[in-house]
Design a protein that fits this description.
By secondary structure, the protein is mostly helical. It is built from four helices and no strands.
Length: about 110
Amino acid sequence: MEQTTTNGKAGSTSNARSMAQDIRNSIASGASSVADTIKEKIPTEALSTAASKVADTVSQSSRYIAKHNLGEMGEDFTIFIRKNPASSVLLGIGVGLLLGTALARK
């Protein structure tokens, strides 16, 4: 019976990793699509320059997400927080406000 429990845990861990990989791939693909759409849809030159920078950043993010696993991203995030504690706190507050606003509307 212990083997069943052990196999069950291994199976659920494997499923969780597979789901995380699928989510990571979906995010990378979606970010790449957003970058392409931004580059295609912006009509004016002034906005085009700004949009192009945003699209390039989104594209770089997409490539990063596609290349790195969750563990590597977590390590990079930890390093960023240690190097930029004030920015990290402000970023956390901003993300919290956005999530709170989005969840309050539902």
